[in-house]
Every structure is written in C-alpha cells, then in structure tokens.
Predict the structure of HTH-type transcriptional regulator.
Amino acid sequence: MKMKVKEVADLVGISVRTLHHYDDIGLLTPSETTESGYRLYSDDDLEKLQQILFFRELDFPLKKIRNILESPSFDRNEALQMHRKMLLEKRRRLDQMIETIDKTIQFTKGEIDMTNEEKFAGFDFSQNPYEEEARERWGDEAIDKTKAHYAAMSEDERKAVEQQFNNIYRKIAALRKGEPDSDEAQAAIQEWYDFLNQNSGHHFSLEAFKCIGQMYVDDERFTKNIDQYGTGLAKFMCDAMTVFADRNKKS
C-alpha cells in the first residue's frame, strides 16, 4: 500500500518539507503523484529513503548522495555494509568522547589526574562535516586535492598530522586571552597557515585564509568545535587570522 507524504514523514520522523525538498532536487521522487497532486511513496521509495538517511547520518551532502544512488555501480547491500562499518566507527569515537567527558568531570572535582593527551581523547577532525560548505566557498578542486592528499598518507603520517594539528590549536588556545596582533599570536597563526598549506594539497591565498577565520565565528558549528580547545578560541583565531592576512598583503 502506498503512503502519502504526511504518513511517510510521521513514520520516519522527518518533516514534510524535507521530503518535498528531496523531491525538488531529484533525490527522492515518489513513484506516483495523483491528479490532485498528492505524492504517493511505494515500498521501493521507502527503501531508498532509508538509504538516504543512513548517508545523512554519516554527514554526506545531499548532492553526493544523489550521485552515489544514481551511479550504475551502486549496490544497496554493499552500501549497507559500508554504513554499518562507518556507524560502528562513529559509535566507537562517541564512546571514547563520553569516557573523556566522564574523566574530565572527575578531574575537575580533583578526583583524578589527566594528561593533556587524555583530555583530547576521542576528538577527530580528520573527517570534515562541513565539506559541502567548503566546496561552495572554494570549489571542488581545492577540496578534492585536500582529500586526495590526506588519503595518500600512511597511518603513521596521518597520526603525525593530527598530533601537529592538536598541538597548534592548544598553542593558540593558550594565547587566546591576549591580543590577536601580538608577536606570539601571529607566530602561532603563521604556523597554522603553514600547516594548512602543507597538509591540504592546496595553497590557500591570504584572502581565503581570512575567509576561513571568519567562518569560525559565522558558523556556530565551527565555533562549537573550535571552542572545545578553549572558550573564545574561535573568535580569537578569526581576529588573529584577519590581522595575519592583512599584514602579509601589505608586505
């Protein structure tokens, strides 16, 4: 029996507006539309919707999902196995972060000691949840080069890059209560600029670097992630990156 859009929305727990949007962009077009304009979803449509939502849970952008599902080589069972593997990894990281939170609560109460490494156990910035926005801002070529550059690294090289990333952020976080134009802050931001250009497979212009800093405060998701290293860090980095870009343009 086919279902109307409101029935599907209630079943799945998403909005009617979302289903309409999926239809509008060609991601999920219901198998039938009545003369009066009602969308009717078949069992096959629901299976496709399930697949879409698995991808969304893993932060795939809608355009990427559509391309995957439209590919002649797409195999549903293979995709389900991939979803399972990725969700297990996501659960593992979340469990580790919950453990880090529990330890941090004990640490703040003075019940245990924590090393700096333990304070950041579970954080993983190797997967970018904002890839779609990045592609819109700087284009596919820059993002594809970054992903290819990272994928070509060995496991040890990736760990070294992630450690360097964390070290730079901790260094800048320790300076965030000072002035963003101080020599110490600008030296740390220079290190961040060099890190991005050395480890992304793409050279970011000073203007792009400045835009990245602005995005740290314009997008609350970035702010939330960055401020995990210290409250106010996103704003401080934005200001310091602006100073860095403006100064170096003049030199």
